[in-house]
Design goal:
Keywords: Cell inner membrane, Cell membrane, Ion channel, Ion transport, Membrane, Transmembrane, Transmembrane helix, Transport. The chain has about 270 residues and is an alpha+beta fold. The protein contains 8 helices and 8 strands. The chain has a 5-stranded antiparallel sheet. A 3-stranded antiparallel sheet has the order 6-8-7, covered by helices on one side. The radius of gyration is 32 Å and the shape is elongated.
Length: about 270
Amino acid sequence: MENFFEQFGAYVPLIINALKALLVLIVGWIVAGLVSSLVRKRVNAIPRIDPTLGNFLAALVKWGILLVVLITVLGLFGIHATSLVAVLGAATLAIGLALQGTLSDLAAGFMLIMFRPYKLGQFVDIGGTSGTVKDLNLFVTELVTPDNVQIIVPNGQAWGAIITNFSHHSTRRVDLEFGIGYDDDADQAMTIIRGLAEADSRIHGDPEPWIKVTNLGASSVDLTVRLWVDAADYWDVKFDMTKVVKEAFDKQGVSIPYPHSVEIHKAG
């Protein structure tokens, strides 16, 4: 019985340290979450600072606190910070090789935050993948497609890809093309389109609508229309103008020709 208590007594300090470590981990995790949330709210409350930066700083603070917690836990087991630095220094090469993709994403995350080619809430195309930016953290960019599908893009791929930001500017140009018959009056058709554009309050008067005959096709005279609108109104104006122009053409006798095909029959 004495041997049991002696053996148990030898493990008591280890058990106590394990309980302390568990307590430090729990408290540290909670504190890291609370502090990072506070940083995010405070930074995002400043109007001139983009929310992307607030999220990024919050993530840095969280991982910084967790690193301190890890060093503290290791110290409870006799592994001091100096020893930890020495171990990490010796393992740097192996860690770098094993996590080179992750480290690349981390470095790209810093670059994305620094140069900010896109921000939260903007609609972008990253290397052929389109969606609204929902989150940008240390390692990945999260996009949401118009049909509410989540897409995760590693920051390394995002930084190395062609980025098209559809929301960067406050205005966009809507390009439309309408075909009319060769027997129709092109001036009449352009007047109809201009009248509809001027009647739509979403379409800007400066720059004014641009409407020209741009092509003589195989079966139609093609009219190109360029309209400037607020970026948020782009798709609604594009679809609405297509509908109202078609309806106005029908009412005023302007034809929209069908594609023609010619069949040649060889006798014999």
